[in-house]
Structure formats: C-alpha cells, structure tokens
Amino acid sequence: MPGENGLELMEHIRMHNPTVRTICVSGDLGSFWSPLEEEKKRYPVSLLEKPFSKVELMGLLSELTV
C-alpha cells in the first residue's frame, strides 16, 4: 500500500469503528510481531502468515463470524 502500512490503515478505520474485527496478513509477521501483539491486546485481531491455505483462511473466517 503506497504511503502507509496495514497497521496505519487500521488506525484510521478504528477512528470510525473501534470494534472492527481484523485479520492481519503478512509474509513476514516477525518484522511486525511487537506492534501486532499490542494490537491483539487492544482489539479483535487475528494473524495469518503467507503463504496460507484456503482451509486456514476459511477456518479463521468461520471463527470471526461466530
């Protein structure tokens, strides 16, 4: 995303809806581990590391829609 990363985008979205459920997807979660752990403490956030399977994605989506 030009200009900002996903965490910065979520800050803007949460200004309007702080309870929005989020799936953070990255090919390198290790680089963002600390800020993502902080996100998980404050908001409903799930993590998914690339590459992921359809089964993993569908399982995560089904957990979030309960």
Short summary of the structure?
The protein is built from three helices and two strands, in the order αβαβα. The protein has helices spanning 6-16, 33-42, 54-64; strands at 22-26, 45-49.
How is this structure best described in words?
With 66 residues, the protein is α+β, with helices and mostly antiparallel strands. It has one domain (6-64). Helices cover 48% and strands 15% of the residues. The protein has three helices and two strands. It has helices at 6-16, 33-42, 54-64, and strands spanning 22-26, 45-49. Strands 1-2 form a two-stranded parallel sheet. It is globular.
Span between N and C termini? 30 Å
Return the string of H and E elements: HEHEH
Total number of domains: 1
DSSP helix count?
Answer: 3
Shape: globular
Strand content: 15-25%
Ranges with pLDDT <50 over ≥5 residues? none
Structural class: alpha+beta
- Give the biggest beta sheet: 2 strands, parallel
Helix content: 40-55%
Itemize the secondary structure elements and their pairings.
Elements: H1 6-16, E1 22-26, H2 33-42, E2 45-49, H3 54-64
Parallel strand pairs: 1-2
Defining key terms:
15% strand; 66 residues; alpha+beta; 48% helix
